[in-house]
Amino acid sequence: MQSFSVNQYLRQHIRTVPDWPAPGVQFRDITPLLQDPKVFRVLIDAFVHRYMDKALRPDVVAGLDARGFILGAVVAYELNVGFVPIRKKGKLPFTTVEETYELEYGSATVELHTDAVKPGDRVLLIDDLIATGGTMMAGRRLLEKLGATVTEGAAIVDLPELGGSARLKESGLSLFTLVDFAGH
Prior knowledge:
Layout: H1 6-12, E1 15-18, E2 26-29, H2 31-35, H3 37-51, E3 60-64, H4 67-79, E4 82-88, E5 96-103, E6 106-113, E7 122-130, H5 134-145, E8 149-158, H6 164-170, E9 175-180
Parallel strand pairs: 3-4, 3-7, 7-8, 8-9
Antiparallel strand pairs: 1-2, 4-6, 5-6
Helix pairs in contact: 3-4
Keywords: Cytoplasm, Glycosyltransferase, Purine salvage, Transferase
Protein name: Adenine phosphoribosyltransferase
Subunit structure: Homodimer.
């Protein structure tokens, strides 16, 4: 019988789109992971089973705009904890805190409601992909401004050659990713 690797199985369902959004970019498209109910369940279960462990179990799951919402909401539901969205600036209706971070060309700002987490909350911060790490770093700073502790950052895909995962780990953030596209 063939051995089953969740990481290999998920990797087979990530579509690579060459030269998008710009020439030379190999875009890693996770939408096929979401379209097939079996694949989607394997993906979510990989996260849920990890975070059911008492030592890793969060009080809250925070998802980064926008694909982190898809993963984070389902993982939070399965863990029976709350979910909070970290949105792009101008999308949240209540009082917010904001964090601006640098992009390859310019900057972006993310926001979080001031009552999204409480001091001392243990938060799992989730997104679909780690590239430069800027979005996850900004999300972490937002959560920490409100007194929460980000226990781990999680993503489906890591693109280590872009330096984000190394930068996040150097900052002291524990990371969990399922598929690594190093050198591909």
